[in-house]
Write a structure and sequence with these properties.
The protein is of the alpha+beta class. It is 30% helix and 30% strand. The chain has a 6-stranded antiparallel beta sheet, covered by helices on one side. A hairpin with a 2-residue loop joins β3 and β4.
Amino acid sequence: MNAEFDRAPEGHGEDPRVLRLRIPPTAPRAQEVRATVAAFAKLQGVRSRDLESLIFAVGEALANAIEHAGGDEIEVRCTVEDGLLQVSIVDSGRGFAAVPEKRVPLPDLFSERGRGIPIMQRCTDVFQVRNLPGGGTEVVLGCYLDRPRGKRANS
């Protein structure tokens, strides 16, 4: 796994508010990414309960990216700005036929597919899906650092 911190402005070392990871689209690497993102989020002050939800959502986004990445690397970017930790998972797969704009209902209890987007929506304060020009998908997940307990923006 290739991990790096972005450089801070004016050459003041590394910026601890930005993390970039690049991985091949293989399931064993997803565990490393979840652990690295969890450690980064803890350093930023994400609460334990919020961290569990965020990492669960990151796992869902990674699973989708691994399945649809088309053999190319997956990039994971973590940033902190204005009290919001955002995790972007970017792949170069085929993208979504229709990007969900509203809250997606959970599928039937016995359905084998279709849980990823509803789970990501319910586990994060910010959820966006973008089809990228030329192919690929970016999933953006976010968690407010100072959100009052029990309040979820996507709920």
